[in-house]
Design brief:
Distance between the termini: 47 Å
Radius of gyration: 18 Å
Largest sheet: 7 strands, parallel
Strand order of the largest sheet: 3-2-1-4-5-6-9
Order of helices and strands: EHEEHEHEHEEHEHEHH
Strand content: 15-25%
Structural class: alpha/beta
Number of strands: 9
Length: 265
């Protein structure tokens, strides 16, 4: 499959691009920064908020699927979050419709449900409860994906990613960790699952302490192999562990992230 990966120079992109390549996919990279050293494939340096620039890529390349990783990974104002996550998604979807590309894999976030109190495992049926404007941006982008799945028949899989790290670094991450290898397995499954329509999965590894239900991902062919529990002896307790376990969004759900929606002069 010839796959356009946006945000290809980011932390996930630098793992995913070679991972998909090793699995036989041809990857076209796109990012706001120039092509990193060592990446030998096709590369486009542009801002995915520019629909004309995005459309031009689809004019030049024969794309079979899109993996959308681009977007500001932290908290910002509401307009910035919506631009970063929703406008970029819409620009890609419009280009896909125009060029008959029907598979979209989206790097959403656990923060789309981050205000959910930590009790039982969270399922994909849990209502969106974003913990930040970052989370709001992810929820809104998922809504656009759902619209395009219904309107145009796009197959769109939203991967609500947990803690993407080489290894878990906190007690919370023992529940939320997504290993590098499992990330590649997850995205390939989302790219190749037969006719998923609009689907949501939780992007974590097979963690013994998992806070999110992995069955929706397994139904799409995602079989995680790693478990954060293998690192439990390397993770020290911290004073904020209890607070971070109150909601599934961890620190993003605390008052430290409260801020006005709009920046004022």
């Amino acid at each position: 499959m010839r796959v356009l990966v946006t945000g290809a120079a980011g932390s996930i992109g630098q793992v995913l691009v070679p991972g998909l390549t090793d699995r036989g996919h041809e990857v076209v990279g796109l990012d706001r920064v120039p092509q990193p050293e060592g990446h030998d494939g096709r590369w486009y340096t542009l801002d995915a908020t520019d629909p004309d620039a995005v459309a031009a890529v689809f004019e030049e390349e024969s794309i079979n699927g899109v993996v959308h990783l681009a977007g500001h990974p932290g908290e910002s104002s509401l307009p910035d979050a919506l631009t970063s996550h929703v406008v970029t998604t819409a620009a890609l979807l419009d280009a896909m419709v125009e060029h008959d590309v029907t598979r979209f894999v989206y790097a959403s976030s656990n923060h789309a449900v981050g205000r959910t109190p930590r009790r039982d495992q969270v399922t994909v049926d849990t209502r969106p409860r974003p913990d930040t404007f970052y989370g709001v941006g992810k929820v809104a982008a998922e809504a656009v994906l759902s619209l395009y799945a219904d309107r145009y028949g796009i197959d769109a899989v939203s991967c609500r990613i947990g803690s993407f790290l080489p290894q878990p670094e906190s007690v919370r991450a023992l529940s939320t960790w997504l290993s590098h290898d499992d990330c590649v397995r997850m995205v390939e499954a989302a790219l190749t699952a037969p006719a998923p329509g609009f689907a949501v999965l939780y992007g974590i590894s097979a963690n013994t302490r998992a806070w999110w239900d992995l069955e929706p991902g397994r139904a799409l062919g995602y079989e995680p192999q790693d478990d954060a529990e293998d690192f439990v002896d390397r993770v020290a307790a911290a004073p904020d562990d209890e607070v971070e376990a109150a909601h599934v969004g961890g620190p993003f759900a605390t008052e430290r992230f409260y801020r006005p929606a709009l920046d004022r002069a």
